[in-house]
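Exercise: predict the fold of this chain.
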Amino acid sequence: MSHLKTDNPIALQALLSETLFIPKEKVESAVSPVGSVVDDASREKAEEFIYQGDKSTGILFILRYPDYPYFSPQAEDAFVKTLGALNFSFENVAVVNLANPHNPNDFKRIMQFFQPTKITLLGVEPISLKLPEIAHNAYMKGKVATVFNTFSFEEMFADVQKKRLFWNEFKTFIVS
């Protein structure tokens, strides 16, 4: 008889009659969705950022909302309506919240991971990402991507003029 050599919790459960307890972090780092073992290096690279949406479209929204996974409910509603007015949806753009402690606050890593061509900073000061100063509702063209700097939705809710300035510039930026 050979020695059993596996750490796959599903295989172990099928082979053993005793209840096994495996820490959730261990299971998530060791098993892929189809149950095959994934090495930690490839998993770390694949999930360097926690984000929502589709990064393959090249459109990235960067925000910093410490109290919410992405947006406040009111801001999310405004965001979805804004995207919808331009024939986009939450599913065909990428949104990353830099307030999530898992997400690096490093512009080079953001560029490497997302490979965006259009970046919108929603209430995130460019200086905090070590970018040059960009005025609100203005954009800067780089070698690979164009960065649009604007206010957070909460700032726009508080000042209708900020919302109007955002909308006029954003629709030009996003469809160009």
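Check your answer against the key: The longest helix spans residues 160-175.
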